[in-house]
Specification:
6 strands, alpha+beta, 2 domains, about 45% helix, about 270 residues
Length: about 270
């Protein structure tokens, strides 16, 4: 459906008569930013949940197919974000997509998908949005849509609460899969072998074979001066040891090399 610029004043008056409000440029840009953050969180969660063994080595790979799940997830989320007439960002800001010819009508699914395809031309879309008097993207003009403040939007306090719940949900998933994600890395597995073969840790490992509280600080640059670190606790929280394994990334063959294993009693570890 093409947009006729000559109808703009008439439609704008109709909006005023019905006490409808065109969403401002600032709100639209902020909603788009929230949608992008939401897409990043979904993509990161998806990749974290379905990570493969030695994903840290894959990050150094020149094969673009290894990065496809992450970037593909972002594109898919942005493409389908408005399928219910409002994206997560629009929902949180109280906005909705409507047909320019009938402000009470939500555009068909095909139109909502086609208008989001043009987000691939975001620099152009951003310029058009900033210059348009009615805060429309190029896709809105091509497909006859407009973004309005939703009269049936949730109360502001409920939208704030919903946003916090969404963020807390993603944070909880990240915490839940953190250990699994660390244990799948080649860096951790290399460090674990060094820990289990360290002579001063044999007795502790016989009493408590689990390696607890693992954390990593990785630098994937080859032969860097600053080593990567894997830290973990061996033994219980009172009489156990904190172990820090320093590693460096090697590209030929691709993998990690242990530089040093440092063992400290828990009581001597700085907070």
């Amino acid at each position: 459906m093409s947009f006729d610029p000559k109808k703009e004043p008439e439609n704008h008056e109709s909006i005023a008569d019905r006490r409808l409000q065109i969403s401002s440029t600032g709100k639209r840009l902020f909603a788009l930013l929230l949608d992008f953050i939401f897409a990043l969180l979904i993509a990161n969660t998806f990749v974290q949940v379905f990570r493969k063994e030695h994903w840290d080595l894959v990050m150094q790979s020149s094969d673009l197919s290894d990065l496809l799940p992450f970037y593909g997830s972002i594109v898919l989320v942005l493409l389908f974000k408005d399928i219910f007439g409002r994206s997560p960002g629009k929902l949180l800001l109280g906005m909705t997509v409507r047909n320019i010819g009938n402000f009470s009508e939500r555009p068909p699914l095909v139109v909502l998908l086609k208008r989001n395809l043009l987000l691939l031309l975001f620099p152009v879309e951003g310029v058009v949005l900033l210059r348009d008097d009615y805060a429309r993207r190029l896709a809105d003009k091509w497909w006859g849509t407009i973004v309005l403040d939703d009269q049936k939007a949730l109360r502001v306090i409920l939208r704030i609460l919903l946003g916090n719940i969404i963020l807390f949900g993603f944070f909880s998933v990240a915490i839940l899969f953190q250990r699994s994600s660390i244990e799948k890395t080649a860096a951790f597995q290399t460090a674990e072998k060094a820990i289990r073969s360290h002579p001063t840790l044999q007795l502790l490992l016989e009493q408590a074979p689990e390696i607890e509280e693992p954390e990593m600080h990785l630098d994937l640059r080859e032969n860097t001066e600053k080593p990567s670190l894997v830290r973990a606790r061996v033994g219980d929280e009172k009489s156990g040891k904190q172990v820090t394994v320093s590693l460096i990334f090697r590209n030929n063959p691709r993998g990690w090399e242990v530089l040093e294993v440092e063992v400290k009693p828990i009581g001597e570890v700085d907070d």
